[in-house]
């Protein structure tokens, strides 16, 4: 298979990260979860609420390490688990709407894809970060199923939230992400939409691998 980049976009909790990680493993590619980068800046903002976000972005030291998945280091500290907590989830879409934040992270993400061989998931990967990606997927699923999957995921991570709270959070974040001024979440014209409602992880993974192997 020739060396390609795969962009996976879609609304919150659509299973992008789980699938992107599997696809990368099977195809021997590098997996990058860009949501984790926006979450890390949000964590820094929570830790330093008195500093302007534009200033925080200038001084931030983010390190992404691929180690059976992805670990993310903020100013030298592994925050991979901490960034999944509710306080970060609640604030991330606001922080992600800042121009300074997006400029900084998109540049870092583009550097990571220069040599190809990357499966990257997020909201603006096919439209902004790697518009020339060889394969673009737009992954959707019903809100109910996304909330149910996130509930299971949260239980495994020890994060408390009810199904109702998760439905509200998912709808709220989708709205913010789809209506923000800079790089809103939208399907790229040349992306292939996959509705994963009722599909297993294996089925979605296999479908993407099949598409990638045709490239
Ligand atoms: O993927 P995840 O749900 O962890 O992303 C958290 C948030 O980060 C999203 O709701 C969105 O506001 C922001 N994000 C973004 N652009 C990306 C990835 C994530 O704006 N490429």
From TrEMBL:
Residues that coordinate or bind ATP: 10-18
Main location as per UniProt: cytoplasm
Compartments (UniProt record): Cytoplasm
GO molecular function: kinase activity
Protein's recorded name: Cytidylate kinase
Gene designation per UniProt: cmk
Keywords: ATP-binding, Cytoplasm, Kinase, Nucleotide-binding, Transferase
Broad EC category: transferase
């Amino acid at each position: 298979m020739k060396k390609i980049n795969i962009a996976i976009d879609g609304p919150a909790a659509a299973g992008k990260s789980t699938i992107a990680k599997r696809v990368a493993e099977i195809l021997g590619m590098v997996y990058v979860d860009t949501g984790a980068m926006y979450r890390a800046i949000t964590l820094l903002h929570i830790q330093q609420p008195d500093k302007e976000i534009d200033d925080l972005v200038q001084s931030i030291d983010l390190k992404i390490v691929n180690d059976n998945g992805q670990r993310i280091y903020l100013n030298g500290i592994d925050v991979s688990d901490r960034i999944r907590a509710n306080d970060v989830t609640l604030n991330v879409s606001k922080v992600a709407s800042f121009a300074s934040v997006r400029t900084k992270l998109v540049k870092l993400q583009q550097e990571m894809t220069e040599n190809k061989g990357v499966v990257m998931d997020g909201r603006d990967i096919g439209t902004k970060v790697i518009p020339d990606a060889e394969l673009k997927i737009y992954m959707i699923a019903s809100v109910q199923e996304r909330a149910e999957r996130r509930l299971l995921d949260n239980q495994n991570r020890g994060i408390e939230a009810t199904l109702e709270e998760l439905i509200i959070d998912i709808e709220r974040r989708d709205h913010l992400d789809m209506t923000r001024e800079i790089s809103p979440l939208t399907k790229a014209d040349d992306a292939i939409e996959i509705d994963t409602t009722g599909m297993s992880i294996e089925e979605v993974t296999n479908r993407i691998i099949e598409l990638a192997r045709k490239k």
